[in-house]
Amino acid sequence: MVTLALAGKPNCGKSTFYKAATMAHAEVGNYPFTTIDANRGVAYVRTACPCTTLKVLGCTACQDGIRYIPIDLIDVAGLVPDAHTGKGLGNQFLDNIRLADAVIDIIDASGSTDIEGNPIDPGTSDPLEEITMLKTELVMWVYGIIEKHWGKLQRQAQQKSFSMTLGLADILAGLSIRSEQITDAERECNISLKLATSEELLRFTEILITHAKPIIIAGNKADVANQELREKLVSKNIMLTSGEAEFALRSATAAGLITYHAGDTTFSIPHPDALSAPQKGALVKIEQFMQEISGTGVQQALNHVVYDVLNYIVLYPVEDEHKFCDGQGRVLPDAFLMKQGTTPRDLAYRVHTDIGNGFLYAVDAKKNMRIKEQSELKNGDIIKIVSTAK
Ligand SMILES: Nc1nc2c(ncn2[C@@H]2O[C@H](COP(=O)(O)OP(=O)(O)OP(=O)(O)O)[C@@H](O)[C@H]2O)c(=O)[nH]1
Ligand SMILES: [Mg+2]
Known about the structure:
Strand content: 15-25%
Strand order of the largest sheet: 2-3-1-4-5-6
Oligomer: single chain
CATH superfamily of the domain at 3-38 and 76-135 and 215-304: P-loop containing nucleotide triphosphate hydrolases
CATH class of the domain at 3-38 and 76-135 and 215-304: Alpha Beta
Number of helices: 13
CATH topology of the domain at 3-38 and 76-135 and 215-304: Rossmann fold
Bound molecules: guanosine-5'-triphosphate, magnesium ion
Largest sheet: 6 strands, mixed
Order of helices and strands: EHEHEHEHHHHEHEHHHEEHHEEE
Radius of gyration: 23 Å
Number of strands: 11
């Protein structure tokens, strides 16, 4: 499953964002290090369900034509400068980033907490400093791991047959860093790893991180950020979010007070009379904020990372290409997130190893056409796999 980690300095709103995105419990508090052990839960990316445009009836896998596909979300403990040397909660938080495909760096857009997460006057800290801090800590953490093994790797590299890329890949496998990413970073740095100086190795690590753990920034607490800070972040293409507003909306939806689908730019109130005055007041404020930034930003941030940064597409395998359903008549029962470039055979393997092994051909159900084994599938494709395996 696609895994994203929420990281950043203490008290910037990671757990609130996590709670909003997963609706799972997490401690929240206005002081540093509320979270000690990482929280892990299921969040979703949103897409339009093809049942609407195809006008197939009976789809129960979506909500009003909106499909939510699960991803893993990890809410990591806060990190402070020099965490890689053990400051704050130390390396433990970095450990939770190991499994992540990408990191959402939550920053405090309202500038109301210092770099260690202590509350200060709103607007008095610079959120951009937090970005540099997280990058530095990540790089120094990975660099530290490489450095620890460097002497041994260099000794092994005396043998002609030894591949430094594979040697490093072995060491970094636990961080979900793959050998292609090491090769790409080496090429981009224009260095030979076997001969690298420590300066070159540091530069290589920086580039490796951009390949292996892309970092996307979310300017959180945007609902209480002043205009100047908002504009500063937007001018740097940073997405604005409010985990708190999203959590309020999802809670109000669960309580039946509003109609809202995560990721909508607005919501409606079916029975205004059922709301108390404070509830109404809170919702009016949220509505105004949503108008200013086109939603709460939470769903938008998750979608952006998965679709635009990690390049995933959504594929729908079916057994009946005419009725778009499985053997039991369930319409579009599965929606899989797969990397751009996925072929019908890759999809067959994702459905089941036996289906992949017995792959014969695939049919594009929307066009009712057989497609080539090597063709690249497109976002939203509905595919019937024909296989010798049942
Ligand atoms: N206004 C506003 N407040 C928020 C938002 N997100 C979080 N907060 C508040 O900020 C404080 C910290 O929130 P947490 O979610 O605990 O922050 P954290 O980053 O998980 O903190 P640590 O676990 O200590 O690292 C709490 O008082 C939250 O209510 C937001 O989007 N808007
Ligand atoms: Mg927390």
